[in-house]
Protein 1
Amino acid sequence: MSTNAKLAAFAHVNHLAIPLPPDAVHEIVNHTAQDDERMWMRMGESVWSRPLLFNVTQGWWVNLTKATATGIVSRHRHPAPVTGYTLDGSWGYLEHDWVARKGTFIFEPPGETHTLVVHPEAGHMLTLFHNFGPVLYVDEQGMQTGFEDVFTRLARYKKHCAAVGLGEAFVKPIIR
């Protein structure tokens, strides 16, 4: 049997899988390699975010963060954990001596305050972040200057999608 025939047989069997329970939500599958640039929301001078999932029932979100120049991305505190996986480039925190490079996984514990910077080693970054709760933006002394939670980030992305012609409904498939 050829490889294509095996894949077709697998797809047919896989398609007949046991259905989801009646109240379960469907999976989300995002193929981001060929993204329309309008899907990326500007977060700063050379920083963009590509939301992949907004979980409004548990208060967290998953996104790609892309920066195209060396420098500060943001200074913030996390009252909930964050995980990240570096897909490209290099970045780190001014408050730590490590550098995240392609393939680096990070776990940030609740209470962590840091200044995220794109490391000059590569001059850019692309990282998958899972924010398990809000982000508290702080100044150089650690005093809160703003915040973002799943609802404010979602509203911001809806507004962005409307402004670039994708429409607010574009966001619906990634809300759970």
Protein 2
Amino acid sequence: MKRPIALALAVAALIIAVSTSFWSPVTAGPAVRISIATGTTGGVYFPLGGGLAALISRHIPGVTATAEVTPASVDNMRLIQAKRTDVAMTLADTASDAFKGEDAFKGNPVPIRTLVPLYNNFNHLITMEGTGIATMADLRGKRVSVGPPGSGTEVTALRLLEAAGIPERDIRRERLAPAPSADALRDRRLDAFFWSGGLPTAAVLDLAVSPGVRIRLVPMDTLLGALQRKYGNLYFRSVILKEFYPGMPADAPTVGVANLLVVHQDFDAGLAYQITKLIFERRPDLAQVHKEAANITLTGAATKSPVPYHPGAIRYYRERNVEGF
């Protein structure tokens, strides 16, 4: 069985197990169906989105939700714009570009609104012993995946390369999702790959525990100043602790970026309120699906999104007396 398929089946089994253990059945038939755009099967968006869909279907009467596999942030914003999905996960830098109509969305702004600031993403630059890569400068001439087309990983990876003074032409660029990237690195068909995700990311963890593999995460925190000068406080310093991935010789200082749950500005205000409330009230259930859900917090919520909040979400935050709303 191919690894991405096996991973998807494992995630589905976990979500089903959690739902039957913690959630009571819904008696009324669903009248409203919504879709949640997530990400690739090797990341955090997919299992977390599946858990959220199960929560919505179980606890919001008359609503059923499904999680959709996508390339992630950039494509998710385009799906929201076209109203081909209802709720989407995205990196804050991609959301900012979409809302302002910049970069990949130049001249075509997306009318998104934030429901919930999720956990923070950690930018990974993963390599292995024997590739000769210890710093960003060592990427020149190497086979490097910058993430799949339509992903927030690709957006951030290209910005990191620019901040490091490495033109795209100086690397042998691939555009792979995290699971295929890990497979290619394991098989020595790739020298390194970028990934922006929560901790731990399944595809990276799977690589780290592979027999004969010693992964290395390249530090990238020195690029933060250049990123902040150009993009502001969308980026911040983070550290990937070595405990998350077996075999890491040391913690890896890096660049972080927030994740957001967003909708179209026309999304129903009552449902926006219910979903926002549900996430915070059922956060422990989501954390059973992926531990990053435990990092979803009301603290500082008003400052975590570069785009406006949806009125339905604002209603909930005001009920909870969250500062800034």
